[in-house]
Amino acid sequence: MITGTKQVGVRIEAAVKSFGRGQRAVDSLDLDIRPGELLTVLGPSGSGKSTVLSLLAGLAEVDSGRIWFGDQDVTALPPEARKIGVVFQSAVLYPHLSLRESISFAPKLAGVPRDEINARIAEVAAFLQISHLLDRRPHEVSGGERQRAAIAKALVSRPTLLLMDEPFSALDAQLRRALRSQVVRLHREFGATTVFVTHDQEEALGMGDRVAVMRGGRLEQVAPPLELYRNPVNTWVANFVSLQPLNLLPVEYDAQAGEVKLCGETVRLAGPDRPLPATFTLGIRSENLRLRPSADGPLQVLTAEAVGEQVKYTVVAPDGTNVVALGGADQVFEPDAKVALAVDWPRAMVFDTETGARIVEGITV
Ligand SMILES: Nc1ncnc2c1ncn2[C@@H]1O[C@H](COP(=O)(O)OP(=O)(O)OP(=O)(O)O)[C@@H](O)[C@H]1O
Questions:
Q1: pLDDT digits (tens, 9 = 90+) for 35-44
Q2: Where would I find the beta strands (DSSP E) of 19-94?
Q3: In a 3-state reduction of DSSP, which class is residue 74?
Q4: Ligand 1 atom at minimal distance to the Cα of residue 197
Q5: Which residues, including other chains, have CB under 8 Å from residue 61's CB and lie 6 or more apart?
Q6: Is 215 in the pocket of ligand 1 (CB under 6 A)?
Q7: What is the dihedral of CA 156, 103, 202, 350, to 10 degrees?
Q8: Ligand 1 probe mutation, 17, 19, 165, most atoms within 8 A of CB
Q9: What is the pLDDT of residues 3-33, one digit of tens each?
């Protein structure tokens, strides 16, 4: 880790923020961000992600609640007193200044000695591979290079908290991927506690030490990526974090026989870890569902779509439910083929049909 970086934990306590008389943009939010972690904040458009970032930056004030950086209550502190670095969707650089001048602006103002500023710029620019561009102005570099300069500008003041709001959303997919891994390495190197806002599942799950999922101004769940993926608290989170389509299938359970009826098939369960209700919703991701050839069905292939090395099948169950399954290119099913499901049961999720809440951890057959 680079010397001079302090790691601070952040605590948002019962934060409420509304704009005008409208709905609450952030509603009773409690969130702990650990010292030095890279937390991604994921949610659909309008879920309150940017507002959370503005509250942390001090660009917006909470209506009620408190914000702590370590043991310091910063709720009433203005942005300049918070020791934060912020990177927005489009780089905030001075158009008439060179990148070097833009990057050195804030530390110069703060009275950091010239040599120290130069050393910090050299270090961060080398890391971000923009050393050769420092004497150019913003309009003389590409969009990706401008975003890297904006990151350098945010880092050079040695912030204790780095806030990034969809910094790569205007860039093409390949560049986004490259910059994503650069930010992860940068975070490891510089160690500042980082909050990275995105509406992109792949970005949030790929980058975050933990992912905070927001919906309608509230926090639905916060967990490490794999835990979130495997143990989502409800159908909404399960669906939102899915990289491949999620099937939510109605299931009937006969407790006495220990059997479930799923898409026209009867399956014996070995041991649900808790009593199951007579009907529930089974959540199964298409990557955890395969098709088996079966002369007498009960399902029928509707479409087969190539996805790289795999094939995405949409099949229809006897009750008309559509089910999406992924298959390898080695076993190809033609449209209209009769098939049965091969469920990876330990990866199946059981949800309450009424509330959508997760009810058991996993079931075995
Ligand atoms: N300055 C503002 N004035 C009025 N309403 C606002 C303002 N900023 C945000 N809102 C409202 O607050 C809610 C949350 O907005 P916010 O920008 O935090 O969501 P977001 O999750 O970041 O969305 P996006 O992914 O589209 O940027 C939205 O309903 C939005 O319309």
A1: 999 999 999 9
A2: 24-33, 38-42, 64-69, 72-73, 84-87
A3: coil
A4: 22
A5: 17, 55, 75
A6: no
A7: 50
A8: 19
A9: 556 689 999 999 999 998 778 999 999 999 9
Distance between CA 125 and CA 133 in Å, rounded? 9
* Residue 56, CB-side half-sphere exposure with 13 Å CA sphere: 35
Kindly report the protein residue whose alpha carbon is nearest to atom 2 of ligand 1.
19
Q: How many helices (H) and strands (E) in the chain?
A: 8, 21
CA distances from 243 to 80, 92, 206, 238, 287 (A): 39, 32, 11, 10, 9
Task: Determine the residue of 41, 49, 53, 63 to mutate for testing ligand 1's pocket, defined as the one with the most ligand atoms within 8 A of the Cβ atom.
Answer: 49
Q: 48 C-alpha to center of ligand 1: Å? A: 6
- For residue 94, give both structure tokens: 């001075």
> Can you give the pLDDT at residue 174?
85
Q: Are strands 349-351 and 310-316 parallel, antiparallel or unpaired?
A: unpaired
Measured over all CA atoms, what is the biggest interatomic distance in the chain, rounded to whole angstroms? Answer: 79
Q: Is residue 44 within 8 Å of 19, Cβ to Cβ?
A: no
What is the DSSP-derived secondary structure letter of residue 244?
A: S
- Amino acid, res. 211: V
Measure the CA–CA gap between 64 and 66, rounded to whole angstroms: 7
pTM of structure: 0.91
Is residue 357 scored above 60 in pLDDT?
A: yes
Instruction: Give the position, in ligand 1's atom list, of the atom nearest the Cα of 22.
Output: 5
User: To which H or E segment does residue 151 belong?
Assistant: helix 143-155
Q: Which domains are assigned to the chain? A: 10-238 (3.40.50.300), 244-360 (2.40.50.140)
Radius of gyration in angstroms for the set of CA atoms belonging to the chain, rounded to a whole number: 25
Give the separation between CA 292 and CA 286, rounded to whole angstroms.
14
At residue 40's C-alpha, the angle toward residues 39 and 41, to 5°, is 120
Question: 47 near 215, Cβ under 8 Å?
Answer: yes
Protein residue with its CA nearest to atom 29 in ligand 1: 46
Q: Report the alpha-carbon angle 57-60-65, nearest 5.
A: 90
Provide the residue type at 21 as one letter.
Answer: R
Q: Which two tokens stand for residue 338?
A: 């009769």
* Residue 87 CA to ligand 1 centre (angstroms): 17
